[in-house]
Amino acid sequence: MDYPYPEKKVEVRKQTAQRPFLRARDTPPLAIALLYGFQQVMVCVSALLTVPIIMADSLCPGADIAKLRQVLISSTFVSSGISTIIQTLFGMRLALLQGTAFAYVPSVQGFMSLPENLCNATEHDHVDPSVYYAKLCILQGCLMASSLIPMFIGCTGLVGMLTKFIGPLTVSPLMLLLAFSQTDLMVTHISKHWVAIVQAVTLFATILYLADVKVPVPGIKDRKFHWYKVNIFGQYPYLIAICTSWLFCIVLTVFDLTPPGSAARVDKNISLQVIESASWLEVPYPGKFGAPQFNLGLFLLFCLSAMTSVFESVGDYHAAARVSEERPPPSHAINRGILAEGIGSLISGLLGPGVGMTTHTENIGVIGVTRVASRWTMVMAGLFLIVLGLLTKIGALLSTIPDPLVGGVLASSMAMVVGVAVSNLQTVDMALSRNMGVFGFSMMFGMIVPKYFTKFPVATGWSWANDILNVLLQMPMFVGALCACILDNTIGGATREQRGLRPRGEIYEGGIDECTYSYPKWVMNILNRIPGVQYIPCMPKEKKGTNRVSGEEIRL
């Protein structure tokens, strides 16, 4: 029978194939891993340089400012490299780069502003090294003591217990407020010179427009000359953007196209002094500046800074898992991650930077752009950092990266963090007014409350209480995440699935040795032979679930 209706042709559109994603367990070729690792170092190097420079200025070394900066930069790179390897292989086991935590800087500046530590020496005045080394020893001693707190929290499993109450409605506001809190820093760096526009245009062009363009690269195949098509722009966008804009700044400097003292110049007196005063090889070691000292007030401030880093890192772990296309981190992995950060802070106190270690968020954003989450790339980045710290001439040369370029890298990385935070809500039923209210109120609280207490600080009559409350209440991530966590766990009207949480007792699908967060099988066999190891909260263990996904028990 013929129907009078015309036949409609359905056009099938072919989906664009995405580049393959390197998971945390994947092992890329050595040369590729080195390139990805070097790219991660180039992204974080400016942030790693910022804190030791601030620390050197706070210690007030007078005419020795360039020398002290070089020493602190060297010890920072080595501490960061060692901490990164520990975190990546033994801690969370995701590609997480460890670096100096800004949360410690206000504590140091507050301590140095005390009358007994006040110093007005300029870069032309002589200050005896014993004076500023004594201050650095106090910082080291208090940091080593305060690092025991995250280590204790990680070993006892306190953080892992708290994370059972943390879902997407808590993590997403934390990540968004973390990114929004960096806007002032981005504007500060970008506004220093228009060269940041060159860097931003290059970066966004490689990420958004040229990501799928394959560039012919000469090589050898079967002992014959061969042209390989390589996705250079999509795999190394940050490296290309930083090198291009850095080269552009060198051209501006060589041909004197920008005035002296401009933020785009690479021949600043301070940068050149650091390069000239740096030795070719320098090994940081414990006790280099003297025996560690202790100060109760600074110790309490550092304890607060350590707790701030713990809360921030928990959000970073969830963000890294999301970007790496892994399941949410289990309790034992978060416990190990915090333990690894505590060990990193202890190493930092032993070697010299004087501030604790934490996870760098901008490097998490790089994973989402490059689609490379292999932990071995971050191991290479850690080795690169150690080499840069030992070969101090090279590390000092990297200090010539102009400040405006830092803002562009930070902006693009935070853009990826914002995207991940929004995508994290796809498991939440946002059609429920309850979930919309929790998310909206936590975001507004996270933006309003810190602004209020910045303008009207807490004044209780006890200086130690003022310091603690002001730091916490002026931190958008803490206020927003705390508000979201309380509301999400106290307001009814939604099931666990509607809140974006898996049903209780459900076990993720996969084999017993397929969990990214667990150690290799041979390591687990050794650990399981040790009596009582299964009771340690930071050790991977078998979890028996009532709602089995694949019909077998897997390690969570």
TrEMBL record:
This protein's superkingdom?
Answer: Eukaryota
Principal localization reads membrane
Q: Where are the transmembrane segments?
A: 30-51, 71-90, 165-182, 194-215, 236-255, 294-314, 379-399, 405-425, 437-453, 473-494
From the Swiss-Prot or TrEMBL record, state where the protein is found: Membrane
GO molecular function per UniProt: transmembrane transporter activity
The family database entries (InterPro entries) matched by this protein are listed as: NCS2
Stated membrane topology is: Multi-pass membrane protein
Q: Which family does it belong to?
A: Belongs to the nucleobase:cation symporter-2 (NCS2) (TC 2.A.40) family.
Q: Which NCBIfam families match?
A: NCS2_1
Q: What is this protein called?
A: Solute carrier family 23 member 1
Give the species: Caenorhabditis latens
